[in-house]
Description:
Number of strands: 4
Order of helices and strands: HEEEE
Number of helices: 1
Helix content: 40-55%
Radius of gyration: 31 Å
Structural class: alpha+beta
Distance between the termini: 78 Å
Oligomer: single chain
Number of domains: 2
Strand content: 25-35%
Amino acid sequence: MIDPQTQEYLSQRTLEIAEDVLRQRIIEDTPALAAEAHHLAQVLRESVDLERTKRRLETGSGSIELYPYKRKKDSSQPDLVGKGQVGGRNYKAAAWLKDDNALRIALIQEKTNG
Length: 114
């Protein structure tokens, strides 16, 4: 039978050895894990790019032309309206001129047939 103090020492020493082994394995495996993470990140980027291409989502910008809204009857209706394309998607736009000379623009994505 092992006395409690010796048992405690042996348990502590076993844990320290296991910790040292684990630490060494992490140090040895870190470059491989980093390379694998980098590879997975590249695969994910390629998948996202492929999906954007399939959905015809352009990475560029776009433009919307706004014109005065001639049928405006009250302040809840926009001052300007228009249409345009941003990021490969068609939008309708409405804009309100605010008291502080700011412009609030609302974009409504147009539904596609597909």
